Amino acid sequence: MGKVHFNVKDIFGNNHKEVEVIRVYENTASILDVNTNLTWIVRKRELGLEETNPNNKYPGHFDYRKTKRQWKGKEQQLVDMVRSYN
Predict the structure, then answer these.
(1) Domain range holding 68?
(2) How far apart are the C-alpha atoms of 22 and 28, rounded to whole Å?
(3) What is the pLDDT of residues 1-50, one digit of tens each?
(4) Do 56 and 26 meet the contact criterion of CB atoms below 8 Å apart?
(5) For residue 55, is it within any domain?
């Protein structure tokens, strides 16, 4: 892939200024944030792509609304938490 996008919102509700697409899936895509050098998941519609099956619910997937409410505006806290696992 490798296509670059600007001002993309991840599933946690945080904006990323510049991202590179790593891989596109059925309804989501993985991206690399150029500033933090971390990978994130975004919905395909955030990249201007059409979701293959937006009504498909996979068992075990998290609730987008709940996750967005929990992490919106807390990108640095989320980044610190992710980096602490490494």
Answers:
(1) 4-50+61-85
(2) 11
(3) 589 999 998 888 889 999 999 999 888 899 999 998 999 989 898 999 98
(4) yes
(5) no
pLDDT at residue 1, rounded to an integer: 59
Domain count, the chain: 1
Q: Per the confidence metrics, is the pTM higher than 0.85? A: no
Cβ atoms 22, 31 nearer than 8 A? yes
Q: Which two structure tokens, joined as six digits, stand for 19?
A: 């991202």
Q: Environment class of residue 85 by beta-carbon count within 10 Å: exposed (0-12), middle (13-18) or buried (19+)?
A: exposed
Per-residue DSSP letters for 50-75?
PPS-TT---TT---HHHHHHHHTT-H
Take residue 33 and report the two structure tokens written for it: 């944030």
Q: Which one is predicted more confidently, 59 or 28?
A: 28
